[in-house]
């Protein structure tokens, strides 16, 4: 990580200011207003956040200390008592929003459900009582492995209500990945479904849970709750497994929200690191509530009549912060869709927008690239005139894709918020405020008020305009992760020790390279470490390599990202075999399948190249940079002097 990361070749000069009409109605109406907010927050971050905490959230008891900063460990609003489920539900019930749609759900087969705030509150209270009856207590962890159905959000809010931390595991992960995460979090109970609909097929979630728990592999799990979604035949283990609808029957809907300490753990969410073991990112209660609330309000410019749709899965941080907690805390109408564009209906998203009159649409660049490929006749055949604001998240968006999104989906009328953030940051960090900040295609523009971001060198010095460097944050913010679950030292090492300012200040850095242009706009250039970004999701190369090596034929594996037009990157694996195995098409296929079983379909290698040896440094470190060049079909560039055996490279070039 010695050199500033990626070279910047992007030259984008187009500027798109919001229309006067949009700005007039927006929460933040002009660049001047943004600038004033930003300056005010910078001058006194604690006062800035405390004022908002006071006016925007409901507390059972006010805090004593706004920020307690023992680097790198922050506590926000210590001494305060609050409950995020209360802020997302109860407080709206005494207003006209009581009977407003909180959640509009659309199932893939075309079934749909709408839950008002009063109805959602009732379901959450009942399910919270079910959890209590099964012995779940404040401080316990609950695993959630669900399709995109309302019960996923209900389960999260019910956990928050009684003070149990949830650990949502993306439904696309395999049984093995689920098992590792349940073990790490010592989950007491798992909430799942018989299955979910995905691209016209059923994903058998309960079956995966059974595999994960087989042979007592996760002794902490006492009960499994199963939502009936797809109605296919499902094995239920007596004593352990229960149907959600059976237990929900006749249960009291009276369950007052537990007053939680501001810093009580709200959830764990696992994210890949560059070493094998997934990291349990820990978020706590009050700061996360405030940060997701404010970012949702100002960035998506929520108005009370809006229908807001974020296409993420609840299994990712985007689903936590911007399907569930941020929108509901604001009393918004949030839409949840179970399905995906697919062969039988490539225009599925546009149908949903038309059917529900969606006003705000938040998706990923990888999805936009897929839409482009499917053709603009799909969106053109639907009425998308309800849309007034668009957003993207997950990876840098290339200006072409941005322009297509702007023109075809937004009808040249909708601002686009390109939002940079991470699982670790809890909420959006660098982003346009759509009524205030003119956008440039491909730039996430400016930091959110209260976020003291910068682009620096390894000593923490700001680099000049248009120079590549490390994207860092120099002051704690309420939504930041608090620690790695069970491993505070890993938290320190991973995020706070790469950048080492001479004055000993602590600076947060989580792996992205960026540059700032002459207007102070941020251009994120991607990750500087060895993590691959497939369809907007970070995959640790180590995890995939470990999966490959766990196959009896494989001696060693090195995995790199290969640029892919659709997915951003594709997994490309270099594999050396054990002595008595020989390369073949069959084996390549088998290895791909093996990775899918071990980690999930998202990590499936697009290509496997067998080789006699891998290029390594003398200290035995695989030189991924060279492998990335080879995978991309480029000449090997840059310094190869640390290579132990240059012959290896020649063989690899030949595709040996
Ligand atoms: C990484 C975080 C945050 C939710 C989705 C992914 C990349 C994210 C952008 C953006 C450029 C972006 C970064 C970041 N990223 N948004 N707007 N422009 N890059 O969450 O899995 O924690 O990944 O996604 O590299 O570090 P995640």
Number of contiguous helices = 20
Report strand %: 15-25%
* Main beta-sheet annotation: 8 strands, mixed
Strand order of the largest sheet: 12-11-8-6-7-14-15-23
- The 3D shape can be described as globular
In CATH, what is the class of the domain at 117-258?
A: Alpha Beta
Pairing-aware structural class of the strands and helices?
A: alpha/beta
Instruction: Enumerate the distinct ligands.
Output: 5'-O-[(S)-butoxy(hydroxy)phosphoryl]adenosine
Explain what the structure shows.
By secondary structure, this protein is α/β, with parallel strands linked by helices. Among the domains are: 117-258, 3-Layer(aba) Sandwich (Rossmann fold); 535-654, 2-Layer Sandwich (GMP Synthetase, Chain A, domain 3), CATH 3.30.300. The strands form 8 sheets. Strands 12-11-8-6-7-14-15-23 form an 8-stranded mixed beta sheet, with helices on both faces. It is globular. Mean pLDDT is 92; it is low at 1-10. The chain binds 5'-O-[(S)-butoxy(hydroxy)phosphoryl]adenosine. CoA binds at residues 198-201, 318. Keywords: Acetylation, ATP-binding, Ligase, Magnesium, Metal-binding, Nucleotide-binding. Mg(2+) binds at residues 549, 551, 554. It holds the Pfam family ACAS_N.
């Amino acid at each position: 990580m010695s050199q500033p990361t990626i070279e910047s070749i992007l030259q984008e000069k187009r500027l798109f200011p919001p229309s006067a009409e949009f700005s007039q109605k927006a929460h933040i109406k002009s660049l001047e207003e943004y600038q004033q907010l930003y300056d005010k927050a910078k001058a006194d971050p604690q006062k800035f956040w405390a004022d908002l905490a006071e006016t925007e959230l409901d507390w059972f008891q006010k805090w004593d200390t706004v920020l307690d900063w023992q680097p790198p460990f922050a506590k926000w609003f210590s001494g305060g008592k609050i409950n995020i489920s209360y802020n997302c539900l109860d407080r709206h019930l005494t207003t006209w929003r009581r009977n407003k749609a909180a959640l509009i759900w659309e199932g893939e087969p075309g079934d749909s459900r709408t839950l008002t705030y009063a109805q959602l509150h009732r379901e959450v209270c009942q399910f919270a009582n079910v959890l209590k009856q099964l012995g779940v207590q404040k401080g316990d962890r609950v695993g959630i492995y669900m399709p995109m159905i309302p019960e996923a959000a209900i389960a999260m809010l019910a956990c928050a209500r009684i003070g149990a931390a949830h650990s949502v595991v993306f439904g696309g992960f395999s049984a093995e990945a689920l098992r590792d995460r349940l073990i790490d979090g010592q989950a007491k109970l798992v909430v799942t479904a018989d299955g979910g609909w995905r691209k016209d097929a059923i994903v058998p979630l309960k079956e995966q849970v059974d595999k994960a728990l087989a042979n007592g592999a996760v002794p902490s799990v006492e009960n499994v709750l199963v939502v009936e979604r797809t109605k296919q035949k499902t094995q239920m283990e007596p004593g352990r497994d229960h149907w959600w609808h059976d237990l929900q029957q006749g249960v009291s809907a009276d369950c007052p929200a537990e007053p939680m300490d501001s810093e009580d753990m709200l959830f764990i969410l696992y994210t890949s690191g560059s070493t094998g073991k997934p990291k349990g990112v820990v978020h706590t209660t009050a700061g996360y509530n405030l940060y997701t609330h404010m970012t949702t309000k100002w960035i998506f410019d929520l108005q009370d009549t809006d229908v807001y749709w974020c296409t993420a899965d609840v299994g990712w941080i985007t689903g936590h912060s911007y399907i569930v907690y941020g929108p509901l805390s604001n009393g918004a109408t949030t839409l949840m869709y179970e399905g995906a564009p697919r062969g039988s209906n490539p225009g599925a998203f546009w149908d949903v927008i038309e059917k529900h009159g969606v006003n705000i649409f938040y998706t990923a660049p990888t999805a936009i690239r897929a839409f482009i490929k499917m053709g603009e006749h799909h969106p053109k055949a639907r009425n998308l005139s309800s849309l007034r604001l668009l957003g993207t998240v997950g990876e840098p968006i290339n200006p072409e894709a941005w322009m297509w999104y702007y023109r075809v989906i937004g009808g040249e009328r909708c601002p686009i918020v390109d939002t940079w953030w991470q699982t670790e940051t809890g909420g959006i960090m660098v982003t346009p405020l759509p009524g205030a900040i003119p956008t440039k295609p491909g730039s996430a523009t400016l930091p959110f008020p209260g976020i003291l971001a910068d682009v620096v060198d390894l000593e923490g010095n700001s680099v000049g305009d248009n120079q590549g460097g490390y994207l860092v944050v120099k002051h704690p913010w309420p939504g930041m992760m608090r620690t790695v679950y069970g491993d505070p030292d890993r938290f320190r090492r991973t995020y706070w020790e790469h950048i080492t300012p001479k004055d000993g200040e602590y600076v947060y850095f989580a792996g992205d390279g960026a540059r700032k242009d002459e207007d102070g706009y941020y251009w994120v250039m991607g990750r500087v470490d060895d993590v691959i970004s497939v369809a907007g999701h970070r995959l640790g190369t180590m995890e995939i390599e470990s999966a490959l090596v766990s196959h009896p034929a494989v001696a060693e594996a090195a995995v790199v990202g290969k640029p892919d037009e659709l997915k951003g990157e594709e997994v490309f694996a270099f594999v050396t075999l054990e002595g008595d195995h020989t390369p073949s098409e069959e084996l390549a296929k088998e290895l791909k399948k093996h990775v899918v079983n071990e980690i999930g379909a998202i990590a499936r290698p697009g290509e496997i190249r067998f080789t006699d040896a891998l290029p390594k440094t003398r200290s035995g470190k695989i030189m991924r940079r060279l492998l990335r060049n080879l995978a991309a079909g480029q000449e090997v560039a840059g310094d190869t002097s640390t290579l132990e055996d240059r012959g290896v490279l020649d063989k690899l070039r030949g595709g040996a």
